[in-house]
Amino acid sequence: MATRILAAWYLVGQDSGFPAVNFDAWNNTSSFNQHVNVQSNHATLIQQIDAASTVLLKNTNSVLPLKAPKTIAIIGNGAANSSRGAIGYSDHEGDDGVLAVGWESRTANFPYLTSPLDAIRSRSATDRTVVLLSTGARTEAMGKDVAFVFITADSGEGYTMVEGNVGDRNSLSAWQSGDALVAAVAAANKNTVVVVNSVGPINIEAWVTNPT
Q: N or C, which end of the chain has less CB nearby within 10 Å?
């Protein structure tokens, strides 16, 4: 592997005439970091990719797209930013907050991270919609025009354990009792929208046929 990597390095002339390395991912405060902005228009491209990769599995009674609701309940740990911030966990070894990437040693730090809660609040301001957040309260869903439930399932490299999972997931179930959360919210609000942020397929048989 080393031979293959170095052969390409020499082939394209990266051994001479290239700028010296000017950052250290392990030390953000070092004067060695020149913080060169290489983002260009990546934010626009990322947004396009995100939109194109979103799958609408079910849309009972055409709840989506929303039609200027007066109130929205946002429920679930996966809706808001982590309490530690976008890069609060080493190698992203945590499922506290919106799931944007799995964990592993080669992950990169986010220059920014827009949570679903922030995005919904920004868009809802146009219609003066009241947006309320709860990490798991069924009562928050009651009486609202629509309730969004965010559930997650994470995985990563097998060098560490996250919520009892070492690398690969132990099952295809949503983490943090996600199925029970969906059932509770659906029982309280007839317009329940489930949003899944997952590293791969999850089992949704427990609630996919729910009429709400």
A: N
Q: How many CB atoms lie within 10 A of CB 195?
A: 15
Confidence of residue 28 (pLDDT cuts 50, 70, 90): low
Q: Mind giving me the DSSP string for 126-174?
A: GGT-EEEEESS-GGGGTT-SEEEEEEEE--B-TTSEETTEESS-SSSSP
Q: 130 — phi, psi (to 5°)?
A: -85, 125
Tens digit of each residue's pLDDT (9 = 90 or more) over 109-149:
888 889 999 999 999 999 999 999 987 677 889 999 999 99
Task: Answer whether residue 58 shows pLDDT above 70.
Answer: yes
Return the number of other C-beta atoms located less than 10 Å from residue 138's C-beta. 18
Residue 146 CB contacts under 8 Å (≥ 6 apart), including other chains: 63, 66, 69, 71, 72, 73, 189, 191, 192, 193
Domain positions in the chain:
61-198
Helices (H), 34-112: 42-53
**For 78-111, how does the pLDDT look when each residue is reduced to its tens digit (9 = 90+)?**
999 988 888 888 888 888 899 988 988 878 888 8
CATH of 61-198, one of 3.40.50.2300, 3.40.50.1820, 3.40.50.410, 3.40.50.1700: 3.40.50.1700
Provide the pLDDT for residue 79. Answer: 94
Q: Which of 83, 176, 77 is nearest to 133 (CA)?
A: 77
